Structure formats: C-alpha cells, structure tokens
Hints:
The protein has helices at 7-14, 56-69; strands at 22-26, 29-32, 36-39, 43-46, 51-53. With 70 residues, the protein is an alpha+beta fold. It is globular, with a radius of gyration of 11 Å. The mean pLDDT is 86.
Amino acid sequence: xxxxxxxxxxxxxxxxxxxxxxxxxxxxxxxxxxxxxxxxxxxxxxxxxxxxxxxxxxxxxxxxxxxxxx
Length: 70
C-alpha cells in the first residue's frame, strides 16, 4: 500500500482520536504501526519499502507507540 498525504484528511484526524494501530508521524502523515519495518531519526520505512517523513515533534510518540503496541 502507498501512503497518501492529504492535508484535508489529516485535519480531520487532528480533531479525532486515532485507533491504537495508527499514529501521527508528521503533520501530513498518519502511519499504521503494523506496516512499519524500520524507524530512523527522521523517517519511517514501511514493510513495502516506502519511506515517509517523521518530524521531531512526533518522533517520541511514534517510538513509544510502536514499541508498546507489539
């Protein structure tokens, strides 16, 4: 699956609580924790090889959610 960047969808999710399997990793991206293969300082690599940005603002939250989800 290919990530979709959508500011409109992103704005909707900013106002709602995401299901536990999803996590915001950047102002324009929400990632499914089940699809993450690798997390680096400023990017996430998905199991299909696609790389998406991860901002410093969300990196701690992503790492905590990823490590506690599994």
